[in-house]
Amino acid sequence: MKWRNRGKPLAVILTVVLLVVLLFPFFVMISSMLKSAEEVYTNPAYWIPKSWQFSNLIRLWTEFQFATYFKSSVIISVGSMLLNTLLTVPAAYAVARLRFVGRGMILYLFLVIQMFSPVIVVISLFKVVASLRLLDTYLSLILANAVFTIAFTTWMMNGYFRSIPKEIEEAALIDGCSRVQTITRIMLPIAVPGLVTTMIYSFIAAWNEFLFGLTFIQSKQKMPLVLGLYNFVGRWTTQWELLNAAAFVALIPVLVLFYIIEKRLVAGLAGGAVKA
Amino acid sequence: MRKRILWILVLVLLLAGGLVWAQKAKVTFFWALYDGLTEEYRASLQDAFMAANPSIDVDIVPIQWDLMQEKMTTSVAGGQPPELCVIGTRWLLDLMSTDSVLEVDKVVSKKTLDNIAAGAMEAKIQGKLMGLPIAAGARIMTVNNDITRVVPKTMEELRAEAKRVSKPPQTYGLIMPGKKHTELTDFCYYLYAAGGDYFAKNADGSWGKAVFNNPAGVKALQFMVDMATKDKITQEGYLGLTRMDSHPIFYEGRAAYVMIGAWVESAMKQANSKFKAQYVQIPPFAGQKPASLIITDSIAIFKKARYTKEAGQFLDFFYQDQWKAKFDELVGFPPVTVSAAKLPQFQSPLYQALGQAAMTAKGWPLIEEWAEVSDIIWDANVKAFLGQMSPKAALDEAAAKVNRARGM
Amino acid sequence: MRDFRAAATIPLRQRLWNPEARLAYLLLAPAVILLLGFMIYPVVYVFLISLFRTNKLAQLKEFAGLKNFVYQFTDKEFWQITARSLYWTAIAVAVKAVLGMIVALLLNVKYAGRKVARMLFIVPWASAVPISSILWRWVYHPEYGLLNATLKATGLWANPPTWLGMPLPAFTACIWVDIWIGIPFMALVFLAGMQAISEDLYESASLDGVNGLQKFFYITLPGIRHLVLIATLLSCLWTFNDFNTIYILTRGGPAGATDILITKLYKNAFEFLKFSPAAVMAVVTFFILTGLAIAYARIYFRQEQGQ
Question: Which domain holds residue B67?
């Protein structure tokens, strides 16, 4: 371990340099969101705002109804998180623990699905949503987001279930528990950390989603935050100071949630080799 | 076990049967976010109409212009269009090819229609008005009088004066966007100013093969390329600046000339510009007649929507001077209605310049594939700017592509 | 997997229909039904579109066989874009892996504050891609962007390029944003792998007089080989599909220099309303990605069995 100790100061310096480079756009965001409309459009650009317009952050809520966008985002994200969990847990359990024909195929299917880009399906998906009369409802986004994360969360949950020793479950079965009871009373409590991870993952995926929101939502009341942010891009000018403030507001909740799950998410993605 | 099955069944039923029953007529209006149009105005229009018509709900949905076409396309393709949508008038042909739009006079009152200025009727196609004009604006040039007082009579004079005052990077002679955005405007100013056009006109009035690569087109593009790369009188980094990115440089007071539309005054106000602006005509090339570009936007009414009759009522309400003139004032467009055009607020120098430009202005050619065509021509422009191809070669290549895309 | 071989002697009917299998079907049913409606059907429909002539509303008009494919395959531009998609992915993923490795190595050094560093390194991953992309567009702005202003003011680069306006800088700028989004994931996966390697290995190597670089190549890298493969393949899928970054930054410009399959596909469908060419590109994308996905699945399964 000697070289690591000797390299410590060097590592710290390198880390700082890399962080400055990687966080650059966020520094720009913070600088720009505190400027006035005039300052944003000043050349040459400078870092320290002259007028410190903290009011930009407040104007989002008072003038531009950010509370509504926020509410929509929360409804959509929580809804798709719950639906996703309801679908994922049984499916992942079946794949992880039950013997049936086609198990391997299902896993492959889920994997292939994982790679579909929303861009490819959005046109025909729109027709499905329209024919179910779900256009302009939260439900359309809840469904679409939940379904688009299912493949991934089932894979992750499958991994967590499999990491639970079979003996525990078998003992419970012998004690007279039904399958459903073993799932709800034994497996789930043990898999709680994994469950939380997949839940937050689906929450974040829904929160950050853009294309479905753009195509399915038709009323301002129901627009999620990421879409609301684009309202600052006009036809002839962009209100960068407000857009940056909005980006800041949209980022914070996701960031907090991300920290909670980040380690387990990595484990789930990379498979068994990494311990959560 | 049983319980679980029941649970799942109930859930699936709930999801599949998530029918939304509208209790009263609801008119949805995809509303383009024109600059200057305030949230307050949108909300007050919505509230005022609903107060006056308690049996009808109206939802005015603000949508960013660049996303509008995608939004409209998916909703029409999905069979659930809104009642109303602001569109670029040139999109109408696509919509008509699929029989999606309703003739305006089916639902809008004669009184409202009679009040529309004749010059704003670009959406009148084969004698039928397929979209209600909402904004029609010819393009003009704006001069920063703090930098120059010269009003050029020709493009050549413009270039000379721009060259004289240009002191990059602090002051530029002329703003010219070089990064593709959704509308092909700048090439069009020079093309029309050189007496050129996009397509040959067939005997029946339809548009034939591409002619924008003829000498007039090449002259226009060569002129743009020379100003940008030889004289360097356009703003630095023009290749990375769309219209939206580059016009703020003018508002900031750092450019002598900009070719721009009716929104210039409201945009300058919003940017808190401090210089004196003068509104003049886009000059023609020496020996040519002036010809500006006029762009109209319309409101389309969709056949398949449920409440078209109520949508008509809403439009009648919206097109009263009290609301429509306020809209025009905020957006800065010259009014499309006869009555509003007489109002005192529309007699300023800006509106006079716009009115004069409109008299000789031409629109974009109305063809189905316009979006793709303008994309191809934009790419040709950029290739010439980058020096990858000569203007002639770039336009020739583009013309061949355009003809292929249009099946000619 | 062993279970299957043992089960092979049991009659098919019983294998398909026994209490355990029935329960499995029931548990899988809700997920599969929704997937069928919201994912499989739309994809099948895209395949259909690619075989038909369509109108401007994506309605099928007449059967065209492979004509749509032939039209694209005889177009030089299509192949340019396909090639660009591939090297876009290859370059981006390679750089992500290298930078991710550097970040992982840095985070593996124990010093006070490395938890904070770790938290900060994650931010680009957490931020929504459409938001990050528009932030970057603002950063790259030639007149008002702080990137070029800072480069000039600090003297780091007196004449920085117009990032989104010239072919090579635009490609670099776009790919950098994609890389930037992908670094945290790579770094964290690698880091997790490094932390699972036993310290004893390093210590005994130190006793043998092995230097740091050798340790990296003989202990660290082999130890996380599998992870590198998996992370790389996953990242390939994401990178190939990265629509938002390019579309928001350049819309594929200047003069098509940053167009990849997924952006061209979107333009065909939603700007030009030409759904058949869009569907052809979707199908091509589908086959390329299926190949990658299967490779990923094999490695994933092999590793799982190895456990």
Answer: 23-137+295-360
Asked if B18's CB is within 8 angstroms of A137's CB, the reply is: yes
Q: Residue ranges of the domains in chain A? A: 2-55, 64-270
Q: Please give the pLDDT value at position B18.
A: 47
Residues of C within 8 A of A23 (CB-CB) are 120, 123-124
Residue A276 has pLDDT above 80, yes or no: no
The interface predicted TM-score of the complex, written ipTM, equals 0.86
DSSP chain A: -HHHHHTHHHHHHHHHHHHHHHTHHHHHHHHHHTS-HHHHT-SS--SS-SS--THHHHHHHHTS-HHHHHHHHHHHHHHHHHHHHHHHHHHHHHHHH---TTHHHHHHHHHHHTT--HHHHHHHHHHHHHHTT-TTSHHHHHHHHHHHHHHHHHHHHHHHHHTS-HHHHHHHHHTT--HHHIIIIIIHHHTHHHHHHHHHHHHHHHHH--HHHHHH--SGGG--HHHHHGGGB-SS-B-HHHHHHHHHHHHHHHHHHHHHHHHHHHHHHH-TTS--
CATH number (domain holding residue B119): 3.40.190.10
Residue C217 forms part of a structural domain: yes
Give the residue from B248, B346, B283 showing the smallest Cα distance to B35. B248
Chain C: touching chains (3 or more CB pairs < 8 Å)? A, B
CA of B253 vs chain C CAs: smallest distance (Å): 13
CB contact under 8 A, A243 and C296: no
Averaged pLDDT score across all residues of chain B: 89
Helix, strand or coil for residue B258?
A: strand
Q: Kindly report the nearest CA distance between residue A186 and chain C, in angstroms.
A: 17
Least Cα separation, residue A51 to chain C (angstroms)? 17
Asked if residue B314 and residue B220 are part of one domain, the reply reads no
Range of the structural domain that residue C188 is part of: 77-306
What integer best gives the mean pLDDT of chain C? 87
Global model pTM greater than 0.90: no
Chain A stretch 56-115, residues whose beta carbon is closer than 8 A to a beta carbon of chain C: 86-88, 90-91, 93-95, 98-101, 103-104, 106-108, 111-115
Instruction: Enumerate the residues of chain B whose CB falls inside 8 A of the CB of residue A67.
Output: none
Q: What proportion of chain B, given as a percentage, has pLDDT over 90? A: 59
Chains contacting B with at least 3 CB pairs below 8 Å? A, C
Q: Which residues of A touch C243 (CB under 8 A)?
A: 117, 119
Task: Please give the helix or strand (H or E) that residue B85 lies within, else none.
Answer: strand B84-88
Q: What is the pLDDT of residues B132-177, one digit of tens each?
A: 999 888 999 999 999 999 999 999 999 999 999 999 888 999 999 9
Contact B11 C30 (CB under 8 A): yes
Of B127, B87, B91, the closest CA to residue B298 belongs to: B87
Mean pLDDT of chain A: 85
B35: closest CA of chain C, how far (Å):
19
Residues B69-86 pLDDT 10s: 888 888 888 788 899 999
Residue C29 falls within a domain, yes or no? yes
Confidence of residue B308 (pLDDT cuts 50, 70, 90): very high
* Same structural domain, C30 and C163: no
Report which of C145, C112, C127 is spatially closest to residue C183, judged by C-alpha positions: C127
**Domain A64-270 classification at class level:** mainly alpha
Q: Report chain B residues whose CB lies below 8 A from the CB of C55.
A: 97-98
Cβ-based contacts under 8 A for chains A and B: 115
The band of C8, judged by pLDDT with boundaries at 50, 70 and 90, is low
pLDDT above 90: residue B216 = yes
One domain, residues B121 and B255: no
Nearby residues of B10 by Cβ (< 8 Å), 6 or more positions away: none
* Chain C touched by A40 (CB under 8 Å): yes
Nearest CB partner across the interface for C167, out of B12, B369, B386: B386
